[in-house]
Design brief:
single chain; about 950 residues; mainly alpha; two-stranded antiparallel ribbon; 8 strands; about 50% helix; about 5% strand
Length: about 950
């Protein structure tokens, strides 16, 4: 009996639905064209490709049909060839067939008579046909200025709360209670600093009786340089910031990319208006003309540095073994991707090879957009990365360097002179140990210019390689062999001495009367202590024939002098080390040059004066197939009713001025996307979810805004308030919406399980950088220093990417341990971003990927994260440092645990947890001592307490912000 009414109801619904369909028939523009555009335009009409002579871009062309005749018969689905082909799966070709829903829409459209919503254009030659349905999409409409709704029971005067509460009331919901002060200070400090508050900050805030304590806290947080580091990191994500070029496996480092990072941080700290911030990044080089453009004032340096935004894309054009033209065009494509997703929230890059499948962006639109940047990024006159640098050297720097270089030049001349002295001495020493009758010829051969040596001289030098091989390059080898050479000289000296003694004896004996020569000769052959008195008298009368080493100088002064030359040469050879001596002088030269101001460069994007290259549409995106020439322009769908033309060449500027004109269009307060996109990203980073949950895609495939009026009000208020971001932070964070607890309820989980309506605060996991930095803050080791070169990363012996300077052996294997000192404890925003080497401890917790940029981070919860917290040497070391800090602060174990707990979680520990952890530390201490009898009680306790600290680091309360 109960089924009959049900069937009757279903029948009635069916009849009503049929009547609704009949009353509101499907149209080509609204219901069918989007399907064909996504699946069929590519082969049937777009870029002149008309397979089977069928163009499906307009309804009348579908009626005309192709080689097989008319494609549809209005009112007759069974005779419509188009429907037959898509229904059978023959079209589109490949595995991706139309869905049943799409096929049903096409069928119903045909049955309804294949209606169009309006008269179709006569031609699509310009490739920019945008239907009214596409143009009316919410993101392409002018930003509205809605008034905050009046909401009953709204106790807040914050306009944000009015919009949110109005939406909640429509779903029968209301705000949750306000969070306590412990929760608020942790939430606010992580939001604005990316760091946890220290215990003193917490105590001061919690115990402040002023009703304005929270507002004062927000002001304090915004005034700190930590704010710029935190929110600068958010922008660096979408800008695709990297310290390396990417593109190839070589992943060349970008030595001075960090100047752009520092510019971003300073801009947020200085509360630079966002319109100025955007203009500087798009066209900072074009913002000054005349003398102002050539003078490197701080303001001018900042403007030029800002254009590093357009230099962040992967760029392999300086690498070897690549197709340079292809690499240049891909760098341009990636730059457009960065610009469009970060500023427009649109995937413009999808139109590079064909019209965008879903959004009203034609391929012609893409290349007109590219033309804005092409004078500075001209693939035909491409500049490699190093050619795009601007030196920061001042005239004073150059003068100082000139003076220092003069000193270095003098020192170099002195070293060259000393080097020649060592060469001469080495030659002299080596000649001493060659046969005397060959020395002169050998010396002459050596000193003869190499190209002028005779064959005999060449052969002679080859016969005596120890002479022939003497050169500045081999001098260090002779220095290493000086002990050998000294011994050779000493042996030669000994032989010479014996020869001189024998020769002198012979000469002196010849001067003795003949009748006494035999007696004198006998004295030489017997020991002196056996001589008789007569023999002694004879020796005294004729000492010459009895000459020895001690008397050689008297009887052969010339021979003795020659012998001394050998002895002195050997002594000098042992004493003087040419290698050490010259190395010392070289180090002195380097030390002199090191005192010169180091030349630094900023990586900029500029365009040559009077350079107006043509931009061509690439057929199917192939840069080798240029098509029609196109001029610079904003995307057609974003032009609206305001004149937004961009001159191809501004006569008032030395450059084309295209980028500057576009930047001013973006920030003139009338652009439909920029302010929305920026404020959506601000909201995302405060609430963990954007009002549009796809911050890089505001198009048809992106998420629809949950609170469109609120988003427009925020965007309008941002622009009316002078594009002041800190003002917007205050408004958001002082709202009741932001200050709610995160407690879930059965009703909220049923009505709004994803908290898209903001009836509570969402619990958020910290970003990878915030997790690392929080550990450094907890144990007190963080180095809070702004700016400067990045902390380097390297691969360790097992391939893990860690902090450190790369030191490789001859086989390019890691060796040694580089000492970074305080650099190792700098904030993660200062860690080098190598595209091929993400820091391991950051990568595991979903580090932003810059390929080419990151519009939204992932937040995974996987086993590798727990494993890292258990086994990472970094985490273990930081836990040990926290334990050491707690031991220094407190003498008793419970107080040590309480101290560490407070530093990790910014609140007091519960008694039950304290008892449990105290027992754990005691058990661990005993376990460590039992494993190692040599371990002292103090060391065992520190290890045990470090284990407890590591458990704190691994807890959800540490990794998530409430």
């Amino acid at each position: 009996m109960r089924l009959l009414p049900t069937f009757a109801l279903l029948a009635a619904v069916s009849i009503l639905s049929s009547r609704a369909i009949a009353a509101d028939p499907l149209t080509f523009e609204k219901d069918v064209r989007p399907i064909l555009k996504a699946h069929c335009f590519h082969c049937h009409g777009e870029s002149g490709v008309v397979e089977g002579s069928l163009d499906v871009r307009l309804k009348r062309w579908i009626l005309t049909g192709g080689d097989s005749g008319e494609a549809i018969v209005p009112g007759n689905d069974s005779e419509s060839l188009l429907l037959e082909r898509v229904e059978s799966g023959d079209m589109p070709p490949g595995e991706k067939n139309l869905s049943a829903e799409d096929i049903a829409s096409i069928r119903q459209w045909i049955l309804d008579g294949a209606k169009t919503a309006r008269e179709e254009p006569l031609t699509l030659d310009d490739g920019d046909y945008i239907t009214e349905e596409e143009r009316s999409f919410w993101a392409f409409q002018p930003i509205a200025s809605p008034e905050p709704p009046v909401v009953k029971e709204n106790v807040s005067d914050n306009p944000i709360d009015a919009f949110v509460l109005d939406r909640l009331h429509r779903e029968g919901l209301a705000f949750s209670a306000a969070a306590d002060r412990h929760t608020l200070i942790r939430r606010a400090t992580f939001d604005l600093w990316g760091l946890p508050p220290d215990p003193e900050m917490v105590d001061e805030f919690v115990n402040d009786p002023s009703p304005h304590a929270y507002a004062a806290l927000i002001d304090r947080l915004l005034a700190s340089p930590r704010y710029g580091e935190r929110w600068g990191r958010h922008w660096l994500d979408v800008a695709g910031y990297a310290d390396s070029d990417g593109y190839t496996n070589q992943d060349t480092e970008r030595e001075f990319a960090y100047f752009y990072r520092d510019y971003v941080i300073d801009s947020f700290n200085d509360d630079k208006p966002l319109d100025q911030f955007i203009c500087e990044q798009l066209a900072g080089d074009e913002m000054a003309t005349g003398k102002d453009a050539s003078q490197l004032t701080p303001q001018r340096i900042a403007q030029l540095t800002a254009t590093g935004f357009l230099r962040m894309a992967p760029d392999g054009t300086a690498s070897g073994g690549i197709d340079r033209d292809l690499a240049a065009n891909e760098t341009i494509s990636d730059t457009i991707e960065i610009v469009s997703t970060s500023l427009l929230g649109l995937t413009v890059g999808c139109a590079k090879c064909h019209d965008h499948r879903y959004d009203p962006i034609s391929q012609a639109d893409y290349f007109r957009f590219r033309a804005i940047f092409e004078p500075a990024l001209d693939p035909k006159k491409w500049k490699a990365p190093r050619q795009r640098r601007v030196s920061l050297y001042t005239e004073e720097d150059r003068q100082v360097r000139k003076e220092i270089e003069q000193k270095a030049k003098q020192a170099t001349e002195n070293r060259t002179k000393r080097q020649q002295e060592h060469l001469d001495r080495t030659l002299y020493e080596e000649l001493l140990v060659v046969p005397a009758d060959r020395r002169e010829a050998l010396e002459t051969a050596f000193k003869t210019e190499k190209s002028k040596r005779s064959a005999e001289q060449v052969a002679l030098l080859e016969e005596f390689p120890n002479v022939g091989n003497i050169s500045p390059g081999s001098l260090y080898l002779y220095a290493q062999q000086r002990a050998r050479r000294a011994s050779d000289i000493e042996r030669a000296a000994d032989a010479l001495e014996q020869e001189l003694i024998e020769q002198t004896r012979s000469d002196q004996l010849a001067q003795v009367p003949s009748e006494q020569r035999e007696a004198i000769a006998t004295l030489v052959s017997i020991p002196a202590d056996t001589w008789t008195s007569e023999q002694q008298q004879l020796a005294a009368e004729f000492p010459g024939p009895l000459v020895d080493a001690s008397t050689l100088k008297t009887f052969s002064p010339d021979g003795f002098a020659e012998l001394q030359r050998y002895r002195e040469a050997a002594q000098i050879c042992r004493k003087i080390d040419a290698k050490t001596d010259l190395a010392k002088m070289l180090n002195e030269i380097k030390a002199i040059r090191a005192t010169a101001p180091k030349e630094k460069f900023i990586r900029v994007l500029t365009e040559p004066a009077n350079h107006v290259p043509p931009t061509h549409l690439f057929i199917r995106g192939d840069h080798k197939q240029p098509g029609q020439e196109l001029g610079p322009s904003e995307l057609t769908v974003l032009k609206g009713s305001e004149p937004t033309e961009i001159e191809a060449n501004d006569p008032d500027l030395p450059t084309t001025g295209r980028r500057l004109a576009y930047a001013r269009q973006l920030t003139n307060g009338k652009h439909p996307l920029l302010a929305r996109v920026l404020m959506n990203r601000v909201w995302l980073n405060h609430f963990g979810r954007g009002i549009v949950d796809s911050p890089g895609d505001f198009g048809f495939l992106g998420s629809k805004p949950t609170h469109p009026e609120l988003l427009d009000w925020l965007a309008t208020d941002l622009m009316r308030g002078g594009w002041n971001l800190k003002r917007m932070h205050r408004m958001i964070m002082l709202s009741q919406t932001y200050q709610q607890v995160s407690t879930r309820t059965e009703q909220l989980d049923r009505v709004d399980p994803d908290n898209r309506l903001y009836a509570r605060m969402t619990v958020r996991r910290l970003e990878s950088e915030a997790i690392r930095d929080a550990m450094l803050v907890a144990n007190g080791t963080i180095t809070n220093r702004l700016h400067g070169p990045p902390v380097p990363v390297k691969e360790d012996a097992v391939g893990q990417v860690v902090l450190g300077k790369e030191m490789l052996d001859g086989e390019r294997k890691p060796t040694g341990k580089s000492q970074l000192g305080e650099e190792a404890s700098r904030r993660s925003v200062y860690v080098q971003v190598r595209r091929s080497r993400p820091l391991g401890v950051l990568e595991t917790f979903d580090l932003a990927t810059v390929a080419p940029n990151c519009t939204i981070r992932n937040y995974s919860n996987v086993a590798t994260q727990a494993l890292l917290l258990m086994n990472s040497s970094f985490v273990i070391e930081q836990a040990d440092q926290l334990a050491a800090q707690a031991i220094r602060a407190e003498s008793e174990v419970p107080q040590q645990i309480s101290n560490a707990w407070q530093r990790c979680f910014n609140r007091e520990i519960e008694n039950g947890v304290l008892t449990e952890l105290t027992d754990f530390v005691a058990r661990q201490t005993s376990a460590f001592k039992s494993r190692d009898a040599k371990l002292s009680a103090e060391a065992a306790h520190r290890l045990a307490l470090a284990s407890a600290c590591q458990a704190m680091f691994s807890s959800n309360e540490f990794l998530y912000v409430d």
